Amino acid sequence: MPGEGRASIGMVAGEPSGDLLAATVVEALHERAPQLALAGIGGPKMQAQGFDAWYPMHKLAVNGYADVLMHLPELLNIRRTLRERWLAERPAAFVGVDAPDFNFGLEHALREGGIPTVHFIGPSLWAWRGERINKIREAVSHMLVVFPFEEQIYRDAGVPVTYVGHPLARIVDRVPDRAAARARYGIAADARVLALMPGSRAGEMRHLAPRFLAAAKLLQARDPALQLWAPMANAEREREFLAHAAAVGGLANLHTVIGGTHDILAACNAVLVASGTATLEAALFKRPMVISYVLPRLSWWIMRRQAYLPWVGLPNVLCRDTVVPELLQDEATPRALADAAWKALTDEAAIRRLEERFTALHDDLVRDTPALASQAILEVADHG
Fold this sequence. Notes:
six-stranded parallel β-sheet; 2 domains; single chain; about 375 residues; alpha/beta; Rossmann fold
């Protein structure tokens, strides 16, 4: 396929985490096949590697069943348009990056239409009941998984699979440079810094930002010099976050940046973070954290009925242990979040233990992900 000048591959990544993970693969695909056209839905990091984004990525960033229902007509229209265009244009393959609720339906239709499909970053079958495995087997020609224990799950189900490691493990330095990150933002070397990361979705911001900011206000009552830094996915999320901050009131030393997640994680002492890929990023930066998540009531009830692991946060799942606190739903009160975050900021012995655990986790996840993923994608494109 590298010799076919007009060959194309369709891709869909629906959130900043998917954009970050997919961008390294887009770059590797272009290194292997310079004339390859890559198009679909992606974010700024993918576009910087030559990806042609037909729709803005944030269109797929929805949170919980209620949020999905609210945006369902638009989501279905986007998916239908993509399906019809790709069935007409016949790309060599389609790659769905995460976003399983959107991508699996699209992958099923494209595969039925004779276009081979790859799914990069599988859904959390290991955290929720695995009824979806049959649908995945029908929709996906090949799975690319980012955690070592996932490979056997798919192999046992008869789904072709490759463990490619986690791209973030190669992006993040094994020993993050806190001093350099602080210098970039003018943060004093001895400042106490809490990162606030309530999520990239509108629903996450709505449910978590008021709690995180109220917790931060309680923390500043203990330490008036505490600095608060919040990396935002885009300008819209930043506006929403600042509106929540104004409603809480009385916050000092509050800073927002658009993008800059890795700089803030390197610079901070601890993190209040929404469950998701950001928790793994925080772990790779060896930062103490408090994981939280709040869903609409119906979504929470459905998810809790399906859960069969005692954790939702990736650091705990991967370490198979409660290494960082999880405060979910009704437990996510400002007081509880503040108390847990204070411990994360100040318990030096616990901080050292976490750094050791997270360094070992980092080492476990390092593979040449872009090379492995791009090779598997091109093999599927060549052979179906």
